Amino acid sequence: MNNSVTPATNDARKGDVVAPTKEKGWFYTDTVKDHFFHPKNFLEDEAGYGDAYLGMVGSPACGDAMKVWLKIEKEADGTERIKDFKWKTFGCASAIASTSMLSVMVTENGGMPIEAALALRPQDIMERLGGLPARKVHCSVLGDKALRSAVMDYYRKSGQIDKVEVEAGRLIDKVLKITDHDIEEAVLEGADTLEKVQARTKVGTGDPSCIPEVENLIRFYKEKYFGA
Questions:
Q1: Residue of 137, 139, 150, 191 marked catalytic
Q2: Per-residue pLDDT for 141 more than 50?
Q3: Among 10, 85, 120, 228, which residue is least crowded by beta carbons within 10 Å?
Q4: What sign does the dihedral 219-59-163-178 (CA atoms) show?
């Protein structure tokens, strides 16, 4: 046992938030710290963004919340590029750093085509950040979800209704009324096995016939968010 690690530090380390030694006070990478202390494209004044395309996820009353403003231009060849990405959040350090990095990735090199932005995965953002503590991965999806919400706002306002995707939870456990979104959130919170997901949601305890589908969803969300 490393004597420099106190029992209290070990307990905190279970949350993957602090460093395992006293010599290093942060678990976050230097890139994460830079984007947290110096967030890029943070919107200080909403004036001038009244006609931007708006996306919002979460609720300030319940915890993390994210708002994104996009400006999109359509080029002569029909390519629709995101030229500006501004954001605000009530989220934690990981949410701030992840969204700051996402805003850079989407707008660098003249702006990313919409289709490419929608194809970005949380692990793409984490790779640019040099990683995030495992328990903070769920924070990295806030900006991504708000981006998608803003793109849907663009599709609606530009008359591309056929491209609008409406998120709606699909009922998986019909007895306990547990949806695929409940399972997604559990995986994002670190539940990577059926037993761990059941510990959080009780899924399958009321309707065991849904367990094979639950296992498929766990594999799907692990691949989607963690590449595993």
A1: 139
A2: yes
A3: 228
A4: positive
